[in-house]
């Protein structure tokens, strides 16, 4: 049995080590995982109450159209129901966007240092990749626009960007969209939308009225704290959504996931409190990094991207791991999820030790 040749160049997604694995390997009693940008405060109490009182029949397939959830999200966003498509997390939505649009005769444009699933699935479809390096950790929209040609099908903008936490502002985004030809789909990955607090972070829903070649992706995995349920969604022109529905699996979101998402939308206070505490903790990190001369990017997500002069990202990762702290290493830095206050304070002390030992 032989798979597509391009699959041989790829590696399956390797999740970070589990807390139990690290405990055993390093003989540690306490492990803190800050690697996957999960919500450290869990999810709304509404969710547990809802999934234990509105238990669906497990012998029956879920509602493939996600009718109740569709109505809830449409009301929440102020859009029409036929502008929405639901998926098992954003990973699946990315997969069937690429399956629907890319082929060996086409190309796709993205940042070089961004969410890796755009690249991964484009390679599977044997499409040409046009990866544009970030500029100071931010999307280089001018060069991305230059890379677009008649064969371009999708441009990806992760906003805020994962892993750097940087963002494209309203003026920059509108300027970019005005340059993109109608045959190119611009996908705005707003997985961390709720965490963005800067005044000039784009208000993208109204842009859908002007640009039919725009698709916005959002998820319940981050600020809503439902990563374990795997549910996300896209927002776009009804004509586009109708075509994409053909690529969607019939029962791709579970009944429990739909129930949990509906309940989560009813608790705005939970999300608002989560975002407020995250912003407060980010400021503390910035002050600490400035004090200890640690390089970082100001973030609009629930994570921060750092580098310590004189240490490789793998060295930083390993030293933290040995002390029971799981973060995520990238070629040019380390991404740390913003945890609870006590976790952040303890981690700062450990990072200070690592930095001081290297500098001494």
Automatic annotation (TrEMBL):
Q: Keywords of this protein's UniProt record, alphabetized?
A: Amino-acid biosynthesis, Aminotransferase, Histidine biosynthesis, Pyridoxal phosphate, Transferase
- Necessary cofactors: pyridoxal 5'-phosphate
Task: Give the CDD domains listed for this entry.
Answer: AAT_like
Q: Which GO terms describe its molecular function?
A: histidinol-phosphate transaminase activity
In-chain residues carrying the UniProt-annotated modification N6-(pyridoxal phosphate)lysine = 222
Give me the reactions it catalyses.
L-histidinol phosphate + 2-oxoglutarate = 3-(imidazol-4-yl)-2-oxopropyl phosphate + L-glutamate
Q: Where does this protein act, in terms of pathway?
A: Amino-acid biosynthesis; L-histidine biosynthesis; L-histidine from 5-phospho-alpha-D-ribose 1-diphosphate: step 7/9
Report domain Aminotransferase class I/classII large positions.
30-351
One short Pfam name that applies is Aminotran_1_2
The text of the family note is: Belongs to the class-II pyridoxal-phosphate-dependent aminotransferase family. Histidinol-phosphate aminotransferase subfamily.
Q: What is this protein called?
A: Histidinol-phosphate aminotransferase
Query: Which species is this UniProt entry from?
Result: Lederbergia wuyishanensis
Q: Name the encoding gene, please.
A: hisC
